[in-house]
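Quick one: Rieske domain-containing protein from Leishmania naiffi, structure tokens please.
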Amino acid sequence: MPIHQYDGWSYERLRQQRNRAHFLLEDPYRYVTVLLISKPGKSDVLKCIDSPCYHAAGPLGEGDIVEIEDLLCLRCPWHRYLVNIENGEEILLQVDPTTEQGAGMVGRHAALPTHPMNLADLSAGGVKVVHGEKVQRVHHAWLEEATGILSIEVAEEAAMRQHPVKSDKPAGNVKSGGICMQIFDIKARGLDQL
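--- reply ---
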């Protein structure tokens, strides 16, 4: 499996970058996001996932990290799709339409035609977490802090073609993947608030 290495990295540098870094890999060519997961009382862990969202090529790598029933998920900032960071599964919040919270809810936990979509409140009852299909490709990342080398291991291109997931196409596309590389600059300039 191809291993891509980047020099000059540390856990502190990742923390300064909002616990994430975006990379354009070559051979196979794809955009990925490395996430630093820090939990109190536990060692820091690196996770790596395709940057663009499988749904509409949104900047999933820039999404909020949310924990739902002990599942760490990225929430796409465009349409609020949830993806399990561990295995790339889509996480759905199924709302019981007979409950107060479910009144008027349709589709992926959202009342239409609001934008952005509103996330269902798990604590209110009438909401069930459903594991969907694997839609986002995950990769292996590790950091040798003594040398400052961050390594990202991806599957062989032939293996990815043999077992495709929905994120493969946008992750290998310059237009789709590049948005995560630029979103930090957009946010820093306040252009996301226009």
